[in-house]
Amino acid sequence: MKGLSILNYNNQSNSFSSEAQKDPDHVLVSSVTDIFTKFSGKDDIKRELELNSVVFSHEMVLKVLKNVESSPDVAIRFFDWVLETNGEKLSSKSYNRMLGILGVNGLIEEFWGLVDVMKKKGYGISGAVRDRVALKFEKEGLESDLERLKGVFASGSVDNSIEKVCSRVCKIIKSELWGDDVENRLLNLNVTFSNDLVKMVLEYLASEPAKSLIFFRWIEERGLVKHDGQSYNAMARTLGREDCIDRFWKVVDEMRSLGYEMEMETYTKVFEHFCKKKMIKEAVDLYEFAMAGSNKPSMSS
């Protein structure tokens, strides 16, 4: 079977694990960084991205932003491009990383502008970003901005951030067996279930795959959300374990039939788990599944 050469598993699990841990996006992240550093015109950027066969994922967006955190102009250009062309790839975490870049680099007006955008989306400022930016404001003597930043956390509006809503949703789901009571309590929250919120909930429920899948199915059946690539990938990552194999394949096959691709983050996490558990057949099948898609894994050593 094609792909078996990648699975010369030899009981040295640390060696295998380190291979799977290697960043498959490293070269592509560097290429994307170079493109947005060298070019500013939309046509030039579009051409270069196509030449490099770039397919954006949530994971790649985060890696590129981390790569350009000391170059705010490049970061802004990249973030705006993704927002315009692949907006669904920007999550609360992506916005927070961009916010941190703006704050730490002293782009105050842009920082507060993005805070306002995040509020409208229901995204809160993470504690890590708050602390980093607060240090910058304090160092630069920006007392009014420092007080304003503290005020964001002191205000009740933080309770409606996507992180807080996610916490309340997960608490309800974990509290008891799924049934009418759980469904009614979720409906009574009166929250908007965006794909970003659904993805976050699924990640928080990763230790309870059965409940995760029930929630995943129920929320779309009730017409509360239309699942997209990121929520399907989050569900696949949760199900990619030895006790959920059949459900995992059903979800990823369904995902592809709807036109959504497996993200490299999903492939890497599940593939590594299969290898760790010595599930060789499943690892080979996953490799072949990924190779048949547009996000092909790199197996270079």
Automatic annotation (TrEMBL):
Spans of repeat PPR: 228-262
GO BP term (any one): RNA splicing
UniProtKB keywords: Repeat
Domain of life of the organism encoding this protein: Eukaryota
Keyword Repeat: yes
PROSITE patterns: PPR
Designated name of the protein: Pentacotripeptide-repeat region of PRORP domain-containing protein
UniProt organism field: Gossypium raimondii
